[in-house]
Amino acid sequence: MKKLIVQLLGMCCLISNSILAQDRPNILLVMAEDISNDLACYGMPAVKTPTFDQLAKEGIRYTNCIGSNSICSPSRSALMLGVHQNITNTHNHRSNRKVALEGEYTPITKLLSEAGYTTIVGSRLVMKKGEKIDCNFKHQSTGNYNGTTDFGLFDAKSTALKSDGKPFFAQVQLKVTHRGNWWNDIRAKSAHPVDPEKVVLPPFLADTPEVRLDWATYLDQIEYADMEMKLLMDQLKENGAAENTVIIFMGDNGRANIRGKGYVYDSGLRIPLIIHYPKGFKKPKVDDQLCTFTDISATILDLAHITLPDYCTGSSLFDKEERAYVYSARDIWDEVKDRSRAITTKRFKYIKNYMAEVPYDAHQAYLEYNRPAVHVMRRLNAEGRLNDAQAYFFNTQKEEEELYDLKNDPDELVNLAQNPKYKKELEKLRGYLKEWQSTHKDRGFDEVEAEVAKSVPFVKYLQEHQPARWAQLEEGKLLDLSAEQDDFTKKYYKKKVK
Ligand SMILES: [Ca+2]
Predict the structure, then answer these.
(1) Ligand 1 center to 329 CA (angstroms)
(2) Ligand 1 centroid from CA 94, angstroms
(3) Which among 51, 457, 104 is positioned nearest to 236, based on CA atoms?
(4) Domain hosting residue 445, numbered range
(5) pLDDT digit string, tens, across residues 305-352
(6) 413: exposed, middle or buried (C-beta count within 10 Å: 0-12, 13-18, 19+)?
(7) How far is the CA of 404 from the centre of ligand 1 (A)?
(8) Residues 97-131: pLDDT tens digits?
(9) Which residue ranges does the record assign to the Sulfatase N-terminal domain (predicted)?
(10) Which CATH number is 356's domain given?
(11) How far is the CA of 21 from the centre of ligand 1 (A)?
(12) Pick from 90, 137, 449, 488: most CB atoms within 10 A?
């Protein structure tokens, strides 16, 4: 009898969900790789982003979205679970791929599916289909999910954006903005390549022709991403779904450049976020509320009328209450073991570097061949030709504590941690760090020596076997290193991932 009641209840749930589902909007989550707030609608000069600008003009543009990590996979894990990655043991980059999630944590796509949504990953309209998931727990792209024997996260891959009696949730990756062997090609083929003379560099980058060209090439990729966004919107229109689809556009972490991706500075953590919903939002606005990835997960569940599980650490962006701070973390990334935490409020940023002995310029293989500016600036630094803001990155170790006034110093150049005038602020933000760590167990303090690679042969390989290419890198050129990179990456991760 009990079993029958459970079955009946289950059927009732299914029926009510499918009825309710008809009134629920479709949700299209578009994530661009490795971009900071570098769109025209966020004030970036020299780049043209008409589609993103239109979304912002008609929807809500958020100015204080702060990542819980500045690298892809921990951020995506937090988003997929609605729980900070340092609670769920998903914080180390590309870790735990054979380990099932602990406890009751459930992917939001599973909750959406149970509520009557069709869940889709990727789209044929974008470069390389945008099917990346990249979460640090056992999963497969598609199929059933129960967390013990079945680990599928989505129902389908790259199907067209249209609702067949059921609403859809689609997650599409815009990969073009990720550093890759297509960057030079996209620039070469652009009808309107960004003029390096017109770009405005942040003050911590050396102003040289190589650095300007690299920045312009990055903006070319953003322009391409803007075109891809238009293709997705056109498909929604063609399928009669434009009015009833909420579009959430966001970055997954900051730009891959000095002080960006991998760092807890704003260039690594602060990302664009725009929400567009023709049927639901009548008043476009700019929203400065402080928010993070887990709040986006909560918002997605809110839009789908799904009750937020108690374990979630975010809340819907449409709730009245606003968070006081965002707790961000940087843990293991490839061969570099590091541990930094950042507390961001609307006004200040506090950073605690638990491994201050690891320098900012850690000679990480991925960054050696993906950040032309570092090679140029390393040379200029050795020649004593960088100013203090630029040379800071090459200090032999980090400061143990950093405090920045984001209003008066958005580039985070003046560390106020030792300034007695800011003692009160310092203590307040230290208090938030302590509060978070006493409320949650931060798994980033677990001992995980086994996951750290002992050596990285790739840079050495290039130096020894392809000195001409290495010399080009040192000149600040962005190379097509895809073949070596892929080969290296495959071997490297095979060893590293459990
Ligand atoms: Ca990324």
Answers:
(1) 15
(2) 12
(3) 51
(4) 2-496
(5) 999 999 999 999 999 889 999 999 999 888 888 999 999 999 999 999
(6) middle
(7) 25
(8) 889 999 899 999 999 999 999 999 999 999 999 99
(9) 25-306
(10) 3.40.720.10
(11) 32
(12) 90
